[in-house]
Structure formats: structure tokens, C-alpha cells
Design goal:
Blueprint: E1 6-14, E2 19-21, H1 22-26, H2 33-40, E3 44-46, H3 54-69, E4 78-82, H4 94-100, E5 108-111, H5 117-131, E6 137-143, H6 156-159, E7 165-173, E8 180-188, E9 196-197, H7 211-215, E10 222-223, H8 225-247, E11 256-259, H9 264-274, H10 285-288, H11 295-305, E12 314-321, E13 325-332
Parallel strand pairs: 4-5, 4-6, 11-12
Antiparallel strand pairs: 1-7, 2-3, 6-7, 8-13, 9-10, 12-13
Helix pairs in contact: 3-4, 8-9
């Protein structure tokens, strides 16, 4: 039986150059910079230019992760691609990233756990490496929201939240206990899946989308904000505590918490609820908005660049998202 453990070898991120401020959104809908900041903490976000794809962003983030890991692309054994906004209905976007990286025949797994996608992806990669089947796995989160949101007053509650971007981590074999993924914790509960979803287009409808559905804006994401907020501030602390119990650590032992960047108010409340000092949680939603599956690797990448996460640090990654899904990863970076 294999005795391998996994670790994160390198992290990378890419965001489009176009900056969209709250003031720009206020010119498109009835909202204001102050209103958005008060409720979400977001000051600006990045949107792609016409023709830019999720695969292209993912490839750039992956190339940075590979460079930092000191591993050539040819040594990648598998790609796990998390997104809720695939470039096409099918095939999955992972194969387009494979092509851009100049790789052939390695497996590409596309997963759909929305904001918790990167957490699920790391867990899958950890399992494959523990099994001995693969040695180096790229875990990617990449999203393009800007082409799928209602940028009018009708859709403002959701539209102001989201941004575009990609993040990636190369997961490989651990060589000691100073750098390794310690544990992963995954959960889902579909009993209230419709409080955060996009109803159309859908294969359970024939045709998959109608003019009537579009006129009613059912092809745009919808959210019952108060319910989502309540679930998030309940489930995220649970996922953190679950990892602490599993690894027999206390809050003081954790060097940094990287939460999914959905709403700054959610993350601040989570920290307050568990008694986590502000300096032990890194947030960058202020600059990038909610990039769903890409938010944790983008945020982690920034924390590493700022020196907030260093090799050997105990790090907790935690997320909550549509599905409803939630989970955490505890690791020594």
C-alpha cells in the first residue's frame, strides 16, 4: 500500500488587466460605491476583454505555479479544473488548458463545486497522490463571470459581487512533514440548492432556454442573500473547527487562514465567531470581487507574495458556496 503524502509545490494566479470600479458599475445601474463597500467590502474587480478565455487565464496561472515549483510542464500527470463558468458547454475546459500548456494524453478532470471547487480539487489531488497513481497534479480554479451577469439595476445585488480570474497550485509528493497537505474536509447539502443558482439554460428543460425565461432573467445567477450569508457563517467555522480537531491544533497554532472571497462581511464575522485575530486571515476581495473557484488560489498567491505565508506555515483554506457546498484544507505550506 502506498505511503505517499502530498504537498503544494507552487502557486500561481492571473487576473485580467481591465479594472472595473464600483463607480463604473454605478454608471450602469442604480447603485453606489458606498453601498457596495458597506455590504460587500468590494471596491473593484477584474473583467476579461472580449475573446479572452478561462483556459487562457488558467494556463497563465498554471505556468506561474510551475515556474515557482521548479517543475516543467511535461512532468504534470493530471489536470483538475474547477469552474462554474466553463468556456463551452462541452467539452470541459481542462482539455483546452492541457493544449495551451503543450501537454498530451494526461487526464483532465473538470469539477463543478462552484466556490468550494478549489477545496474539492485539492482533496482529489491529495487522494490521487496518496494512492501513488500520480506524482504532479495541477489544480486550477478559473472563472469568467462578467459575460454572465445582469449589469442592470434588476441584477445589481449579484452583479456587483463577481469578478474574473484564475489561480493554480501544483500538488506533488511530500518529502518530509514540514510541507504537506494534512487533511481535507468536504461537505454538501442540496436541500436548499435553489437559494444560489442559475436556472437556465438547463438540459432538464426542452428547449434548454426560452425567450420567456430570458425575459424573466432566469439565465442570470440568482441568490437569496440573507440565507446564503447565514449558511456561510455557520458552515465555514464548522469546517475550520473540523480541521483543528482532526489535526489536534489550536487557533494559536494556525499561521494563516485563507477563506473563499465571497463577501468581506462574511469573512470578518467568521473570524470574529471563532476568535481569530485579523492578522491571521488574508482577504483581497476588495480588489478582485468574488472569483468563485479561483478566489482561494488568487488570495493564497497574494498572501505568499506578501510574506504572510511562508514555507512550513500551518495554513487553513476554507470555503462555502452554491450547492450548497463547503469544506476546508489544512496544510503545511
Amino acid at each position: 500500500m502506498s505511503s505517499y503524502r502530498s504537498r503544494i509545490l507552487g502557486v500561481g494566479a492571473y487576473v485580467p488587466p481591465r479594472v472595473v470600479t464600483n463607480h463604473e458599475l454605478a454608471s450602469l445601474m442604480e447603485t453606489s460605491n458606498e453601498w457596495i463597500i458597506e455590504r460587500t467590502g468590494i471596491e473593484e474587480r477584474r473583467w476579461v476583454s472580449d475573446g479572452q478565455t478561462g483556459a487562457q487565464m488558467a494556463a497563465k496561472a498554471s505556468e506561474q505555479a510551475l515556474e515557482r515549483a521548479g517543475v516543467p510542464a511535461q512532468d504534470v500527470d493530471m489536470i483538475i479544473y474547477a469552474t462554474l463558468s466553463p468556456d463551452y458547454n462541452f467539452p470541459g475546459t481542462g482539455v483546452f488548458v492541457q493544449r495551451l500548456l503543450g501537454l498530451k494524453e494526461i487526464p483532465c478532470l473538470d469539477i463543478r463545486q462552484q466556490c468550494t471547487g478549489f477545496i474539492y480539487g485539492l482533496s482529489i489531488a491529495d487522494s490521487f497522490i496518496r494512492s501513488g497513481q500520480y506524482k504532479n497534479i495541477l489544480v486550477i480554479g478559473s472563472e469568467i463571470h462578467s459575460s454572465g451577469i445582469d449589469v442592470t439595476t434588476r441584477g445589481r445585488d449579484v452583479a456587483v459581487l463577481f469578478g474574473d480570474g484564475a489561480g493554480a497550485a501544483l500538488v506533488g509528493r511530500a518529502v518530509d512533514d514540514q510541507q504537506l497537505i494534512l487533511s481535507t474536509h468536504l461537505h454538501a447539502d442540496g436541500s436548499e440548492a435553489e437559494i444560489l443558482w442559475t436556472e437556465y439554460p438547463a438540459s432538464c428543460h426542452n428547449p434548454r432556454i426560452t425567450v420567456e425565461a430570458m425575459n424573466e432573467a432566469k439565465h442570470f445567477p440568482r441568490m437569496v442573500g440573507k440565507k446564503v450569508f447565514k449558511h456561510a457563517v455557520t458552515r465555514m467555522p464548522q469546517a475550520i473547527m473540523e480541521g483543528m480537531v482532526k489535526n489536534q491544533v489550536q487557533l494559536k497554532d494556525i499561521d494563516m487562514v485563507i477563506p473563499h472571497q465571497a463577501n468581506l462581511r462574511i469573512n470578518q464575522m467568521v473570524a470574529q465567531m471563532i476568535g481569530l485575530p485579523p492578522e491571521k486571515m488574508h482577504n483581497n476581495i476588495q480588489k478582485y470581487g468574488n472569483t468563485t473557484a479561483a478566489s482561494i488560489p488568487i488570495c493564497m498567491n497574494e498572501a505568499i507574495e506578501l510574506g504572510k505565508i511562508q514555507r512550513g506555515h500551518l495554513v487553513c483554506l476554507v470555503a462555502f458556496g452554491a450547492g450548497l457546498t463547503w469544506g476546508s484544507v489544512f496544510l503545511r505550506y
